Amino acid sequence: MEFITDFYLFLASVLLISLSGVLLPGPLFAVTIKKASKNKTAGILIAVGHGIVELPLMLLIFFLLSKFTIPPIVQVGVGLIGGFLMVFMGLQAFRNRNKQDETAVNMKRESILAGAWTTAANAGFILWWLTIGTTLILNAKLFGLLGFSIFAGVHWLTDFFWYTVVALLIFKSQRFWTERTRMGITLFCVVVFIGFGAYFMVSALWSLLA
């Protein structure tokens, strides 16, 4: 599989993919809405809880990949599966663009625990890291441990920034998100997911045929 070799271009792709993933409503977003209605700092705490689960998983994947030589065919498979999943998520987001997120959240624990628990219990989160996330980590390996650390920081800071801002906005005004705003965010996510998904799939196939 052909990876992005320019570090700054790679970081830009990480930022866009991470932002697209976090912008799509899901269980963690629903938890943020619930907690933020009573606490304007809920987003910060939820992002910390999310990181408690996510960062060790990222390190585990990175060091496992570092210990073993990944056969080219496996890299191609990861690229194809990750790319397909991204395209699928983009198409699903477009298909459900007019549906309201009605995720029910009934958590009474503190925000950090809510963030950690919701992340750990989300099968989609694990699947994302085993496919799309693993593809990004394979690319980050080209830049060594420092490159991976910057990648991990950028990815987590995207979550941190988004949930912090969402919590503040919801706390101040729960009517902030208009239908036009929600639709614009969804379409942005669709374009980024399908675009990068197609890139991963085409580059993987190109490596296989080369």
Keywords:
about 210 residues, mainly alpha, about 80% helix, about 0% strand, globular
Q: Count of helical segments?
A: 8
Provide the domain count.
1
Relative helix content: over 70%
Q: What structural class do helix, strand and pairing data support?
A: mainly alpha
Number of strands: 0
Q: Characterize the biggest β-sheet.
A: none
Strand residues, percent: under 5%
Calculate Rg over CA atoms: 17 Å
| Secondary-structure element pattern, one letter each | HHHHHHHH
Mean pLDDT: 79
Can you tell me the residue ranges where pLDDT is under 50 for at least 5 consecutive residues? 102-108
Overall geometry: globular
- The termini sit apart by 10 Å
What does this structure look like?
It is a single chain. By secondary structure, the protein is mostly helical. The chain has one domain. Helix content is 79%, strand content 0%. It is built from 8 helices and no strands. Helix 3 packs parallel to helix 5, helix 3 packs across helix 6 and helix 4 packs across helix 6. It is globular. The chain starts with 6 loop residues before the first helix and ends with a helix. About 3% of the residues have low confidence.
